[in-house]
Automatic annotation (TrEMBL):
Its cofactor is Zn(2+). GO terms for molecular function: guanine deaminase activity. It comes from Bosea massiliensis. This is Guanine deaminase. Belongs to the metallo-dependent hydrolases superfamily. ATZ/TRZ family. Its EC number is 3.5.4.3. InterPro entries: Amidohydro-rel (IPR006680), Guanine_deaminase (IPR014311), Metal-dep_hydrolase_composite (IPR011059), Metal_Hydrolase (IPR032466), Metallo-dep_hydrolases (IPR051607).
Amino acid sequence: QTSPLRALRGRLLWFVADPRDVGEAAHRYVADGVLVIEGGVIRAVGPAEAILPTLPAGAEIIDHHPHLIMPGFIDAHLHMPQTQVIASYGAQLMDWLNRYTFVEEQRLAQQGHPEKLATFLLDELLANGTTTAVIYCSVHPQSAQALFAESERRNTRMIAGKVMMDRNAPEALTDTAQSSYADSKALIERWHGRGRQLYAITPRFVVTSTPEQMEAAGRLAAEHPDCHVQTHINENRAEIALANELYPEPGDYAGIYQHYGLLGPRSLLGHCIHMTDREWRRFAETGSVAVFCPTSNLFLGSGLFDWARARAEGVPVAVATDIGGGTSYSMLRTMSEAYKVLQLQGQSLSAFAALHAITLGNAKALKLDHLIGSLEPGHEADVVVLDAGAQRAMAHRLETARDLAEELFVLVTLGDERNVVATYVMGERTNPPSFSGGA
Ligand code: GUN
Ligand code: ZN
């Protein structure tokens, strides 16, 4: 029903390396560029003057000039059951989990509720230009089922899993080592690699898993080495004390996950704020990924993630919203807060480094950079179109911007979903319903 070739014209920006490693050579910018999409995949990219003459007569050309065209954003950690927990007042991690999160997550047992949340979440992500996310569902297998079904309907590339937790949570929210293994396994068989969907084995954190369940999670990871593992670590002092009390032998929090075979290059560990030297080494040795969640770490009063240390240790870093400990769905907002977290530690983050992080950087951390996070030919055509001047205060500020770096820094510092002009998934423009008031 669509023309075989679709071309997007505008100001193209993407990355081929990390700007912190190679500076200006890390990005590609084409002021009048064309991106050619065929069958949902990028076929060609380059200056309009070179590409346009090569297009067949029937090709559809969508002109987004003067807007920026970038790879869709990637969010490496968020919680679907917490879309109605976001902005809950006055608590740090353990109280916040008990007072708000574990109460709300029980509602996913209700008929139709997971479907409602999945629809909302994917609308909201796409409205923010996020085309791939790594998602915690609830303990209920039907929560992951609902998320994957909705993602498949939209053909988005999502990575998700049912939470495994069998202690230190309300009865209604616990599974068992056996049932969590069986339910996760069934979901992997049904969804992992089906279309664009990918499964993440999801033990919530050591506090809510018995040794039997940790062992079951490790067994799943060993049996499905191409699945991701996602969990939490070293977020909050009280949490860390409890984790080490429950599992004293390994000597540190990372050692507990390592003992159960849960560290590795596809392991995504949220927070990593209060890390010991030995824990950084465990991450580096196993290639485990530290996930930086700036708005959440500030909102829950957890602490400041040390990105320079992670880089120095050779530990890969992904960035994420951590909805609903986090306070924004926007990866632009997230990077604006990341900048402030780093400022407090005397570290910096250029606009190029920030935009790299939420595209190619996260794709690499997820080991999906051959598929997403780039406008290079062969990649899936998940694309966000951005207008840095969409907000009045931003247009006003841009009157004095002298170059691309300055424009992008304004975009990263002040931008949010209002700056997203369009989001394409596999070359198809998505039309999330525009919000027009409360229920
Ligand atoms: N640690 C264990 N569960 C959670 C969660 O839902 N959110 C955050 N921020 N940390 C956690
Ligand atoms: Zn989390």
